[in-house]
Target: Taurine-pyruvate aminotransferase
Amino acid sequence: METQTFANDPENVIEADRAHVWHHLSQHKPYETVDPRIIVEGKGLRVWDIKGKEHIDAVSGGVWTVNVGYGRARIGQAMADAVTKMCFFGGTAGTIPGAQFAEMLIDKMPGLDRVYYANSGSEANEKAFKMVRQISHKHYGGKKQKILYRERDYHGSTIAAMSAGGQDERNAQYGPFTPGFVRVPHCLEYRSQDGSLGEEYGAKAAQAIEDVILAEGADTIGALCLEPITAGGGIIVPPKGYWERVQEICKKYDILLHIDEVVCGIGRTGTWFGYQQFDVQPDIVTMAKGVASGYAAISCCVTTNRVFDMFKDDSDHLGYFRDISTFGGCTAGPAAAIENMKIIEEEDLRGNSVAMGEHLQGNLHSLMEKHKWIGDVRGMGLFAGAELVKDRQTKEPVDEKYVGAIVADCMAQGIIIGATNRSLPGYNNTLLFAPSLIATADDLDQVTAGVDEAITRVLG
Ligand code: PLP
Model:
């Protein structure tokens, strides 16, 4: 691959990083011997590290964020213009970019009305949980305060978000967690316990949610929080009919439906939001990563006016949503988000996600024909997973060390892919792909050719 050199003294940067930066999700030991990976430049789908090595990035900045790709000067310019004029005003005030982006966003979300700004996916989810709890206090005598979440789903790294975390390995050693969060089963058809498939499996998976509601008491449950398509838990596209039935259940028991679009939002699956792939109308939607494609830190908790109006009671001096996020008053976030959304529209990146998503699925299915280790390929748009098993009959997962070795082999080839990692006990066996929505067929062919080689080298 092409290499590039950089004027900054790489050794100094590497040593400063090694001495003082605590990297996310990283074991310490390797840093004693392996240089930290420092990414210094990006253009389109490609990034260069500090040693000048070029990588093709099939996971949008490592964590599925850079939906419009790297090097978009117009987003940088929009942010510079916004912060030069008015960088920040927090608390009870609004800003021009904040109002403009909210209007653009709501236009893409029929049935939703209000945007509450924050900075990360975890934080947006915390806002939603707080809304649900306060609604319970204000309107249900404090009784309807439980929040249901699903096995394998992830909603963030803060303690309450982890209390809603369906990935046990992620949660290990961080308890005790916040009370009032109750788990419902996952909906991964490939791992159907009784052999039912398709719509039948979808109905059973939704029924499993209703069973939990009935066991807990519907009058104690304020909200159901789900990812539209489970991301880090293994790219789980819910079976046909599932979402529609989930919606009916929520309506039946007066339970708010909170959909976490932190990953699927802003075009990832080919629609603006993942839930728009299904016939479902949420009450609360949270989003983060793709909102400004990582050019700025911004997240949103979007609600209906019905939810908003539940806080409209001037007679209760504590009755409004008494929440704040200091940096929810930054203009850089919404300014970047406006430009990001314009790019997606002008370049039809949702259309590209659909077309290139089919190409990616096709490539992964071809790999499945060649490698007996791939038990299942699933996904939607430019969002895909390949689950690795020892045996297609028993579906026993391959050991996670092989999955790690495949990811590392790809990395050595200059191809960045992801995997379910230290999240699901026994099931860290799915390779993950979520390239920027600008990916071309050539890019994807390059990625899957590298994966092909890596699987051969690691598993034979
Ligand atoms: N929700 C989902 C579905 C996520 O995948 C993530 C992060 O990966 C989050 C929430 C948390 O977002 P953040 O890391 O910005 O707090």
About this structure: The first helix runs from residue 10 to 20.
